[in-house]
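Hi there. Long-time user, first ticket. I'm pasting a complex I've been working with (about 600 residues overall). I'd like to know whether the download I got is complete or cut off, because the file seemed smaller than I expected. Thanks.
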Amino acid sequence: PADRDGPESESENILAGFKTPNVLSDSAREKIIFIHGKIADQDAVVILEKTPIREDTLPELFSCSSLRLETRNDIYGSYRLQAPPHLNEIKTTVIYPATEKHVKKYQRQENFLVEETGEDYESITLPYIQQQSLSLQWVYNILDKKAEADRVVYEDPDPKLGFVLLPDLKWNQKQVDDLYLIAVAHQRDVRSLRDLTSEHLPLLQNIFQKGKEAILQRYNLPSSKLRVYLHYQPSYYHLHVHFTKLGYEAPGCGVERAHLLSDVIQNLQANPQFYKTRTMYFPLRADDGLLDRFREAGRM
Amino acid sequence: PADRDGPESESENILAGFKTPNVLSDSAREKIIFIHGKIADQDAVVILEKTPIREDTLPELFSCSSLRLETRNDIYGSYRLQAPPHLNEIKTTVIYPATEKHVKKYQRQENFLVEETGEDYESITLPYIQQQSLSLQWVYNILDKKAEADRVVYEDPDPKLGFVLLPDLKWNQKQVDDLYLIAVAHQRDVRSLRDLTSEHLPLLQNIFQKGKEAILQRYNLPSSKLRVYLHYQPSYYHLHVHFTKLGYEAPGCGVERAHLLSDVIQNLQANPQFYKTRTMYFPLRADDGLLDRFREAGRM
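Hi, the file is complete. Here it is re-exported in full:
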């Protein structure tokens, strides 16, 4: 039945035709690798990440795998285990065709901490963002249900206060240990923290409250198990909020980039213009054009 | 040839005979799981960890695996890849027979996010800290040069504004990639963030400035490569500041526990009583006595 096999055959082809692979970066700790190459003469980025070990698969894993002893010392034995492939999948993301920006994004780079005053934002960062004018089409596709509609976990359709909650692509949804969801606001005119004022408090509180409720409903995880935050700088300039499981060291949850939504709300309650005037700190990669702008302005 | 098959047969048996498995802890990010169970009626701990993805296996991985499309949006495709088992091994450690200490060592404690208002601090947290009255003798030994004197990287001896800077015990000092130093204030009456007011600004600014200078001098690392922060709750109630390398995901640098020193300074400049009134969020382990107090007070 060719029609049913269609997506699989097509997808099998896609990696078999992945040529001149070149590792952009990898993490031995996280068992992830980012690779740049060509598919049909166009740039592609492939991300391979081993999946977390699932408790519910352990009995089958133990009974159906083969083990080879590597070394033994006293009570400690070390083995290599070969598991049935369906119990040991590799999450694979293909970005194709990829732009130069995608390739750069995954290229291992040093980070530098930038200090951005309110004036720096106006004179350096905002003009840079506007000039880049990166496409948000994929975000609008989600909001308009033109893509990923089947992945939506919850939606509040209100155009002012509403949002779409869906799993981050980094999460395979097989276990809640690394739960990672994103709430994307329907409102389209907030680029980042810097655009937030006290008038956005109802929107932020709505995302916080209904996002937590939806996660409790769907994943049985109470708010005391959640880390809810925004990034600054964000990776795309349309308001979105990260929901990750407390205890899961999600990439980007460090204090240098993440801002707890509950802190953001408190800050705006105390000072409606908080994010217009606050000096913000964030890391930028060595190849980030924004870093050059800070350097040119003598701010590094 | 039974003698040659010996080790492998034995090792196959060992996990097939692993009974009543119970997950002690796991990390979805690191793809590792720690399991307690029984082998032949004796306690055993099994550790499974997926192996890093090796660059030299990529061509075979791409050509010999099967792929299944999960979802596609615009240029982004997400797949599940099933690899040949020999390219996707799981490192397996068996501790057998294991003692109770082994089991405890790998037992994870769940974390819960606590919300602490200024009043909660006064009525719940502060009385608990005072009642615990954990010894700070080891801190005073450092400040008085009765211990670890040879480890001191820098000292400002001023009793009001001064501090001792030394490597954290987690850092082996072999490479700066995971640089981790601690500045311990000479002043003995600041338990935590909650005790800070604007009168401590000179102390905080002194630690920030001279700490960064000392690290530049000794390790040739400029301040743009540093993450400088306090913990709340701290692990001991004597004012200390963490200096870690930006890009190194140090334990405890997550937004739920870390507070950038530069933010602390800004907060106190804007409001001298900021940390008396602010609602703070922090994780507590399930076995932390303070969590019980929040529960008893109906705050969880």
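A couple of notes from our side: Residues 201-219 of chain A form the longest helix (19 residues). Chain A has nine helices and 14 strands.
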